[in-house]
């Protein structure tokens, strides 16, 4: 499994996930840069994603929805802040309504996804910072650590195929 560690810190309002992939950095970057590849891993296997809009550049926006086992849809968005291809990108991730407008009552996280190559493998660090400890607690109760880990663990299979 690519995920090697998952931790959260309520006081710092963070979730940090470490992972290692059996592929070079450029290949892992493509998973996020290509909407068709991103939708294969953005969401746990039981909640596959459909990427609607995809602009991985500063000021860009990525919108998606995940479809649950009973056909229910959950929308979300990324607002991309910085891009340093293929090493890192930062974005704000939030919940959205069916028109991809932010749901103000749900937490937003500021995320940094970093990648570095080591011996032909990629070491990735995913850090999410929430505005409040309550917001972090809410997503923890929603299962964000398990869902994110399941999502990330799909990457090796995608890049191997």
From TrEMBL:
Record-annotated Activator of Hsp90 ATPase homologue 1/2-like C-terminal domain positions: 23-159
InterPro entries: ASHA1/2-like_C (IPR013538), START-like_dom_sf (IPR023393)
One Pfam family matching this protein: AHSA1
Protein family membership: Belongs to the AHA1 family.
The protein, known as: SRPBCC domain-containing protein
Organism: Gordonia sesuvii
């Amino acid at each position: 499994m690519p995920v090697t560690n998952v931790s959260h810190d309520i006081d710092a309002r963070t979730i940090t996930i470490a992972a290692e992939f059996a592929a070079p950095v450029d290949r892992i970057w493509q998973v996020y840069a290509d909407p068709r590849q991103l939708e294969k891993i953005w969401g746990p296997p039981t909640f596959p994603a459909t990427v609607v809009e995809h602009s991985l550049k500063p000021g860009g926006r990525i919108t998606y929805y995940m479809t649950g086992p009973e056909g229910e849809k959950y929308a979300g968005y990324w607002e991309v802040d910085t891009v340093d291809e293929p090493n890192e990108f930062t974005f704000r991730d939030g919940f959205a309504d069916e028109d991809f407008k932010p749901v103000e009552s749900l937490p937003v996280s500021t995320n940094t996804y970093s990648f570095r190559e080591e011996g032909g493998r990629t070491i990735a660090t995913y850090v999410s910072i929430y505005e409040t400890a309550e917001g972090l607690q809410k997503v923890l109760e929603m299962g964000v650590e398990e869902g994110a880990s399941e999502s990330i663990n799909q990457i090796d299979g995608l890049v191997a195929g």
